[in-house]
Design a protein that fits this description.
mainly alpha; globular
Length: 89
């Protein structure tokens, strides 16, 4: 992972902390393709879910696509992680 990727990831995480829907969506994208992070459908679904809850239509579409490649258990885990994130923020 290059410095640029790491900086971008940190920037997106900070923006997500303050609840910016675009940042939540971008994190979903990073995890769905494994850019700068380990590819992780559970994390991707979690971030897309959080962005979708803030009204991002593209996040709803991408969340559904990621969900197609996930087991029921993985989806449950992603939803639990999204709830935990919401409680903490």
């Amino acid at each position: 992972m290059g410095m640029v990727d790491k900086k971008y990831l940190e920037n997106r995480l900070q923006a997500a902390e303050s609840g910016k829907a675009e940042a939540l969506y971008d994190l979903g994208l990073l995890y769905s393709i494994g850019h700068g992070v380990e590819q992780d459908n559970v994390e991707a679904h979690k971030w897309f879910n959080l962005a979708a809850m803030r009204g991002m239509l593209s996040a709803q579409i991408d969340r559904a696509e990621v969900a197609d490649a996930m087991s029921t258990g993985e989806i449950s885990e992603a939803q639990r992680k999204a709830r935990e994130w919401m409680v903490a923020h």
